[in-house]
């Protein structure tokens, strides 16, 4: 879906006129109209404001297909509801909501993350034994940004 369609859909889902949306975003009604016709695209600051105001990731706003993977646990994040948020409410598209919340990591070590995730994975993959799942996580996690940065310090 293109940005113009995403913005129109957001406005209509929130039952706003172009004027009302413009007021919420501190822009003119004409700006909203130009976005919806595809004549222009909101600037970076406005995209961030839309993201926070309507709880939609910038990837979604730009119509970019999401192929995001949590850089802490490795979980695919193909819906905005899975994304973490910073203290100011803006989305953090690098981490899932279970690994990072309000500007802080939930897990202080790889081992604590593995301890939490392995039982969940065992329910999802009953044919794979606990030892194998643990080994898989021990191999995957060091490749992710959260743990690479941890290893550097």
Sum this structure up briefly.
The chain is mostly helical and 153 residues long. The protein is 50% helix and 11% strand. The N and C termini lie far apart (41 Å).
What integer value in Å does the Rg equal? 19 Å
Mean pLDDT: 90
* Low-pLDDT residue spans: none
**What gross morphology would you assign?**
elongated
Overall number of strands? 6
Strand order of the largest sheet: 1-2
Q: Which sequence of SSEs, written as H and E, runs from N to C? A: HHHHHEEEEEEHHH
Proportion of residues in β-strands: 5-15%
Distance between the termini: 41 Å
How would you characterize the largest beta sheet?
A: 2 strands, antiparallel
How would you explain this protein's 3D organization?
By secondary structure, the protein is mostly helical. The chain is built from 8 helices and 6 strands; from the N terminus they run αααααββββββααα. The protein has helices spanning 3-13, 18-25, 29-37, 44-54, 58-61, 110-124, 130-140, 145-152; strands at 68-69, 76-77, 83-85, 91-96, 100-101, 104-105. The strands form 3 sheets. The chain has a two-stranded antiparallel sheet with strand order 1-2. The protein has a two-stranded antiparallel ribbon with strand order 3-4. Strands 5-6 form a two-stranded antiparallel sheet. The longest helix is centred in the last third of the chain and has 15 residues, at 110-124. It is elongated.
Secondary structure elements and their pairing?
Layout: H1 3-13, H2 18-25, H3 29-37, H4 44-54, H5 58-61, E1 68-69, E2 76-77, E3 83-85, E4 91-96, E5 100-101, E6 104-105, H6 110-124, H7 130-140, H8 145-152
Antiparallel strand pairs: 1-2, 3-4, 5-6
Helix pairs in contact: 1-3, 2-3, 6-7
């Amino acid at each position: 879906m293109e940005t113009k369609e995403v913005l129109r859909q957001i406005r209509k889902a929130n039952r706003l006129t172009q004027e009302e949306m413009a007021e919420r975003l501190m822009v003119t009604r004409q700006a909203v109209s130009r976005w919806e016709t595809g004549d222009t695209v909101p600037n970076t600051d406005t995209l961030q404001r839309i993201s926070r105001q309507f709880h939609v990731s910038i990837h979604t706003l730009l119509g970019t297909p999401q192929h995001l993977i949590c850089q802490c646990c490795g979980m695919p994040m193909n819906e905005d509801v899975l994304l973490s948020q910073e203290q100011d409410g803006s989305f953090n598209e690098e981490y899932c909501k279970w690994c990072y919340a309000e500007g802080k990591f939930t897990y202080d070590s790889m081992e604590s993350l593995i301890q939490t995730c392995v039982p969940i994975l065992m329910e999802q993959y009953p044919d794979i034994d606990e030892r194998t799942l643990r080994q898989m996580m021990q191999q995957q996690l060091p490749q992710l940004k959260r743990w690479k940065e941890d290893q550097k310090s």
